[in-house]
Amino acid sequence: MAKILVLGGDGFCGWPTALHLSKAGHELVILDNLSRREIDQELGIQSLTPIRGIEERIAAWEELTNHKIGFRRLTVGKEFDALLEVIEQEEPDAIVHFAEQRAAPYSMKSAVHKRYTVDNNLNATHDVCAAIVESGRDIHLVHLGTMGVYGYGTAGLKIPEGYLSIKVDTPEGEQVETEILYPANPGSIYHMTKTQDALFFQFYAKNDGLRVTDLHQGIVWGTQTPETSMDERLINRFDYDGEYGTVLNRFLVQAAVGHPLTVHGTGGQTRAFIHIRDTVRCIERAISEPPESGARVEIRNQMTETHRLKDLAEMIAERTGAEISFVENPRNEAAENELNVINEKFFGHAIEPTTLEEGLMEEVRDIAARYRDRVDPKMIPATSQWSKT
Which end of the chain, N or C, is surrounded by fewer C-beta atoms within 10 Å? Predict the structure, then answer.
């Protein structure tokens, strides 16, 4: 079993990942500055699910399982010396990096939010890489990236797992075959920071032999894992507001309170999806399969299925009786796009993923309907505009 640091381990993906890895027998330490909870206060919103404080969460987990999880309150990207000290003291085998501002709409809310996202995300990722090198330890870094680094246009080909094979004609008339990082095409400041993360990883892998796995995931949906379902004190967060709530969460809450499902633009935008239960399993598997020192960055596309937004709305409407309303799209993006993605490293391990078809009603019944009294309807609409025009 491994010693693992989970950066951002109090968040939507970090908390269930920490529990999943702890249940598997790994030794866990969470590093988090609890900034996501502070952003809730800034926005005047709360998770649809009643999430407990981090100390109560950890104590409940130990009470239920006898597994201990350490916690250090620390701002990755600001407190470099403290981060390095933790790495040197804990001597982890792997670091799982979630310590980034994760919402595209929030990153586009204002100049202040754009600058915060850039400052937080880029400094956090770089400090982690630099601290691992400075520690002198052979630590495997697993990072949660996003499918959004590829952009949401129609590429005309299946998007590969990070690297694109190309042929280049030389001035001498010869043809050279090589591989490059798939050209980035970020659609928000948040996605732009993830593309820069990829360059940090490429440099540190090449220059310092850092072992890195970068998981480009689709939209993570679902609230609970087997571990977070054990007790309400362990419940995972569910964001439904216009800044942090994913399109699926927004639709589910709108259906629960009898509000039409608001589809942005034509609804022809295609997105990739993966359930949180599969996210934590993908991270566990990535930890167990580190690249060799000196190898290039391991990039994996982690998604289960793709859906057009209007088809997703129709799927929910059929199950709940909700109406559908088309509204102006605040994002600067194509009205229609296809998304064909290679994800052989996901399905190549005989994983049986949770699909929307089989898992959607669980979210409707156990989350959206159960906690609908906590909904603040005025927080549901997306308000962040991608451009002043």
Answer: C
